[in-house]
Write a structure and sequence with these properties.
Oligomer: single chain
Helix content: under 10%
Shape: globular
Number of helices: 3
Radius of gyration: 22 Å
Amino acid sequence: MRAPALAVLACAAALGCAPRGDQPATDSVLCRDLESGHTATYRGHGAIADCLRDPAMQSDGHRREALVGPGRFDFGDARRFELGSGFAIRGAGPERTTLYASRPTTSVFGDDVRSALFVRGARVELAGFTFEGDCRAGPHPGPDCHSGDGDTLLAVLVACGYGFERGPDCDVDGLSVHDLRVLHVKTPFVSTSSDPNRATGRKAVFANFRDFHWTIRRFEVSGRADGYRYARIFELGNAATPAVSQGPGAGVTEARRYVVDIEDTRIDTHVGMFGGQLAGVLTMAVNAPVSLTVNLRRSSLRGTERIVGMASHVQGGLARAGGAALFRCEDSELVADQRDWAGKVRQDPAGAPCPPFDAAVYVGEPSQASDSRPARVELLRCAVRVEGWLALCPEPASIEVIGENASACLEDSRVAPPVRGRVEPPPCLTLR
C-alpha cells in the first residue's frame, strides 16, 4: 500500500497531478457546465481566460464553474472577465491560487475597464484566490503594463453594463464573494452608477439592478506593513464624487431593496491615496428610489482614514428621490487611526497639519447638491473609535451625524470619542 501512495505524491510534486477528480492540478483549470455535462481542462497561465471563452461555457443561467488549481494565472489576451448568471470561479485558496492583472485599468470613465472581474449576472461566486493588481508581478504583463506603475483601479465590478447606453434593469442577486484577497488595487470592490457624456467621450457604469442580496465573507487586502494605499475597499457610491459614484440603483424607476452582508472580515490597512476626503474602507450613497442596507457582522475594519462614509445629500432630481441608506454593525469594531497623518506631516512640513477626516463613521455626509435622503447607522454590540488623534488638532468624533434626515442608534455598544450629532435611544433594530 505504501508504494502506490508514494507514487501519487511523487506525481503531484513533479507533474502537478491532481490527487482527486474535482481538484485541478497545478497551473490548470477544470472547466465545466453542470447543466449540460460539458467538462474540459485548460492548462497554463491563461487557463481561466481559455475556460471563460470555451464555446460550450456560454449558456447564461447554467451552473458553470472554473475550478482553479494552485498556480499563477492572468487574463491572457482577454480584456476583462465578464461573468453572467450562474458562473463560479473557485480557487485552491488565497495562499495557493493567484490571478494577476495583465493590463491595468487606468481611467474607468475616459478609457476602458481592463483586467477586472465584471459581474453582470445572478448567482455568481468568486472564492478561494488572490487577485494581484500589479500587472508587473504577473507571468505575462501585457503591452499596457508599464514599468513605472502597474497597479490597476478595479478588481471586482458589479454592474448591468458599461459604456454610453443604459440597458434594462438586470438581475445580480445571490452574489457570493468569500475567501478572496485583493492586493494593489485602488478600489477592490465597486458597485456604483454614473452618467455618460457621449459628447466628451465620458463612459459610465450602469448599476440599475433589480432586488439583490449579496454576501461577502473573509475578504482580505494588504496590511499596513505593505505600505500600499487603497482609496476605498468597498465602494457603493461616494459622497465626495457624487456625479461619478452615485451608488447602486441609479436609473431604476420603481422601489428596489438592496442588501449587502459583510461577514467574518478583518481589514487593517492604509486608506487614502492623498487625503481623507475621498478615502474610506466602506462608502455608500443612494441616488435612486432604493433602500440600501449594509450589514457588518463579526468583523474588524481598521484604517488610517475614515472607516465608513454614508451620503444623504447627493444628486438632485425626481428620478433619484425616495431612497434610504442603512449601515448596521453587529459584533464588530470600526477603528480609524490618525497617526498615519503624522508621518505625512513629517514628509511635508508645509502641508496641512491636521487630517482631512475627523470621525471614524460619517452618517449623512454632504456633497455638492442639497437634496437629502435618510441615512442611518445602527450599532449592536459594536465598538467605534478613533485612535492616535493628534493633540494639536480638533478632537475627532467616533460618529458624526449630519443633517435632519441622518440618525444613529447605539445598543450595547462602545464609542470613543463621543458621537457628534443626534443619537436615538435603543432598541435600534430597523427592518428593511
